[in-house]
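Async update (no meeting this week)

Hi team, since we skipped the sync, here's where things stand on the single-chain job. The sequence we agreed to prioritize is pasted below, unchanged from the tracker. I ran it this morning and attached the output directly underneath so nobody has to dig for it. Comments welcome in thread, and please keep replies under the output.
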Amino acid sequence: MMTPAELAAYIDHTALKPDVTTAQIDALCAEAASHGFKSVCVNSIHVPRAAKALAGSGVLVCTVVGFPLGASPSVVKVAETEWAIAQGATEIDMMISVGDLIDGHLDAVRADIAAVKAACGDLCLKVILETCLLTGSQIATGCHLAKEAGADFVKTSTGFSSGGATIEAISIMRKTVGPEMGVKASGGVSTTEDALAMIAAGASRIGASKSLAIIGA
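Output:
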């Protein structure tokens, strides 16, 4: 078991729905600062507000790029990344082109990730695979490509497709990337038991909109 504070340090406190309001972003940031969540994860339009609200708090500002489909050109993902960082984002969660991975266009997937990582520099890049759309072998391949491209994390899901994080996917991801990369479980993690099971399977970060329930707040 973990204390609420220990568990909170794993969590990216998330609000990515299209109807999120500025009042909800303000509440998200206040909750993150109060409970010690690792970051807030917001759509890029909300980065300036979140960065201002969390300045000096120690809470990171994470945003998503190419989200939720991943089906935009690398140059667009790079531009979005650069803008978000300029506005105060300190972590980037990018969505890959799932179709390219399934089609076996591995050089294109690797190059896409590498381009965004170059834009991130030393900042943390998490690569979303959308594991519910992939076979176990494809999940492993996506992890290898992310590692080769210099990413810092692999992440299961957007939360906008047909499924979220599973123990099986997390186990494959951790086995593939080894101990040096992060693994983020995101999508459908809504209870303390869910979060602890994902961590036991190899997750080093949890993405959740039900963060308060997870820590029992």
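Quick observations from my side:
The longest helix spans residues 106-120.
The chain has a mean pLDDT of 98.
Reply here if anything looks off.
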